[in-house]
Amino acid sequence: MHHKFYRNIHILLILLLSITSACAQKNPVPNEIPPFTFFNIENDVAFNRTNLVNNGKNIAFLFFDPGCSHCQQEVLALGKNYSSIKNINLYLIAMQEKPLINAFMDMYGHNLKGKKNVVVLHDKNYEFIGKFKPTQYPAVFVYGANKKLKTYWDGEKKIDAIIKALNM
């Protein structure tokens, strides 16, 4: 029963991403971090723009799906290269249920868990797609300390290019 439910949710998310992709030219990625309310995966406390770390360093949002193999490999690679990204503020965001997000972090993000510059957020109100305009998983949005967009990409990217973009 649960398997059908999750399969249907996954199909719905793919349709949403497809529609978002079709509309992407009409609705470009925001040049500034939009207002949002996500929830900290550890304590379910609301998290919004005012909670973003303000330490003069880049702010990066990585939107992922726990079942996405590209997302799994990207987060695993970021963890293995943590010393190269320790000076950015990294927010990992997913819409799926908390147990799936936690299992993903245990398996692929274990080297990022507990790092002071890494926060895992739950988009339980399904805001991310409408506000940030990703077209596929994983989607990464890099903003400067001034909350202005520096770069973004959707889909797979080599780890060296990711590290360079996060630190630009």
Produce a short descriptive summary:
By secondary structure, this protein is an alpha/beta fold. It has one domain: Glutaredoxin, CATH 3.40.30.
Explain this structure.
The protein has 168 residues and is α/β, with parallel strands linked by helices. It has one domain (2-166): 3-Layer(aba) Sandwich (Glutaredoxin), CATH 3.40.30.10. Helix content is 34%, strand content 20%. The protein contains five helices and seven strands, in the order αβββαβαβαββα. It has helices at 2-23, 69-80, 98-107, 128-132, 159-166; strands spanning 37-40, 46-48, 59-63, 89-94, 118-122, 139-143, 149-154. The protein has a seven-stranded mixed sheet with strand order 2-1-5-4-3-6-7, with no helix packed on it. The model is unreliable at 21-25 (pLDDT under 50).
Provide the domain count. 1
**What percent of residues are in strands?**
15-25%
Main beta-sheet annotation: 7 strands, mixed
| Number of distinct beta strands | 7
CATH architecture type: 3-Layer(aba) Sandwich
Helical percent range? Answer: 25-40%
Based on Cα principal axes, name the global outline.
Answer: globular
Quaternary structure classification: single chain
Structural class: alpha/beta
Radius of gyration over alpha carbons? 15 Å
The CATH homologous superfamily: Glutaredoxin
